[in-house]
Amino acid sequence: MIDLHSLTIADTKKHLREKDFSAKELVTAYLARIEKLKYLNAFLTVIQDEAIKDAELADKKISQGEDLPLLGIPISLKDMYLTKGLRTTAASKVLENFIPVFDATAVQKLKDAGAIILGKNNQDAWAHGSSGENSDFGPTKNPWNTEYVPGGSSSGPAVAVAADMCLAAGGTDTGGSIRQPACFNNVVGLKPTYGRVSRYGVVAMASSLDTIGHFTKTVEDSALYLQVTAGKDEHDATSYPIEVPTYTKNMKKDIKGLKIGIPKEYFAEGLDKKVEKIVRDALKTYEDLGAEIVEISLPYTEYANACYYIIMSSEVSSNLARYDGIRYGNDRSTFGDEAKRRIMLGTFTLSAGYYDAYYKRAMDVRALLKKDFENAWKTVDVIAAPISPTLPWKLGEKVDDPLAMYLSDIFTITINLVGIPGLAIPVGFLDGLPVGMQLLGPYFSEEKLFQVGYAYEQVNKWFTHKPNLKI
Amino acid sequence: MKINVRHVAKLANLQLTDEEIPKFEKQLSSILDYIKKLQEVDTTGVAETSPTTDSQNIIREDASLQSLPKEDALAGSKNDKTGHFKVKNVLKKT
């Protein structure tokens, strides 16, 4: 019997190599668990036969001594990633029967690295949402309490990792869609620097904000996964031609003398006091580890949300204009409410007479937000901040109030506007629900974020805490 | 601020029902009121930012590359019997 709860990518690789179990046994165990946990609604498509075949092939390669970075590692993918020959819906009725004819670059790289894809995960349709409830195929449930939202928009991938239905899962983060569900599920979530991972073949939401990241149980696993997906891709002009470091190389170095900035605007009104206490306890741990906590200010923070909703909606209206039902997919009458709202908001802000007042102004404010962070890096190495101002809320609580839902993203969206990386790490529990914290750094500083996240994780192994699920 | 939902929906090629129009009008107007906040910011002298990283004008060599086979390109369309995409009439018959 394989103990799926305790496995990480790092030690599964060792078990497979030492033949403690085979990839086929592992995949079979995961598929059985996915079946039993169907009620969480984390998967839209499960791949049975193909995954077993892939596992047999992985076993063959292992026995031949082949060593690929993710050989035999079972993963799942948010249904935004195009997978050749495998239905990809973006959780929208528009694409309910869409079968892609090519793989996204990230998918190709994961397959080349030996990963085994178990299925496609549920999400908010088109990645529009912060609760997972905007899926056209029903909401995903939070494994820690199934009456609560798991966060969004990458709801399924976060739950799949949290509930041990796979070892890692691919997500997308346009305004917090990886970090916030990571925070609500007690898992590690990485939003890489804009351009670090190719966006090619991933359904586009807002092209200047979209990043391709992932969920894992531990920081080390997050580094191992990014090692595979990072890099310049000729199919994505915005992927950046900067060298990919060995992410685990400096991961275990201590963090003595590290300066961690605490932006006062992120610890202000609106942040739940009890959540704040847990985040501050985590900062205390960093002090104990020899880091210095420095209070900083990011003065334009209060304008970030308004700025984000203009830029995001404008780009959404442009990207979703291609869905006309002619070349593939259903026609525009099949869009759900949230997509319609964002398409209309973006169409309005880009329309004649309003462009300067909305889009142009938002882009100017975006430049000021970037400047805030440029100034911060003069005094600190990384920044630590809460991810969600509150704990997960109950399913249904905010569905009729889009503005209230949008305001739940205030601590995450700025990072996408600026384009820097953010690593979400679990920092504790409150009333049985998880709390997370994000570590932010300058462009392409993922290596540093892994080091800082790893240091904390050695002291507090929250990933060993597991939800109590009905099987 | 009030938004003309009927007009915007037409621009976006979305068909709304009579019940949807007042609902979206209310929701979108409250969002627009919120984003008005940006008008407070003094942006004099700010250079508009577009790319988040500093990359600009990324071009590749002008060479022909392998593209999708015709069957693949048409695979998702509902009518591929003729080897073409089928679209609605653009011009009206007179």
What can you tell me about this protein's structure?
The complex is a heterodimer of chains A (471) and B (94). Chain A is an alpha/beta fold. Helices cover 35% and strands 13% of the residues of chain A. Chain A has one domain: Amidase signature (AS) enzymes, CATH 3.90.1300. Chain A contains 14 helices and eleven strands. Chain B is mostly helical. Chain B has a domain at 1-38: Orthogonal Bundle (Histone, subunit A), CATH 1.10.20. Chain B contains three helices and no strands. The chains are: A alpha/beta (471), B mainly alpha (94). Chains A and B meet through helix 9, helix 10, helix 11 and helix 12 of A and helix 1 and helix 2 of B.
The CATH C-level name of chain A is: Alpha Beta
What percentage of the residues of chain A does DSSP assign to strands (E)? 5-15%
Order of helix and strand elements from N to C terminus of chain B:
HHH
How confident overall, as mean pLDDT of chain B?
86
Given the structure, what is the number of helices of chain A? 14
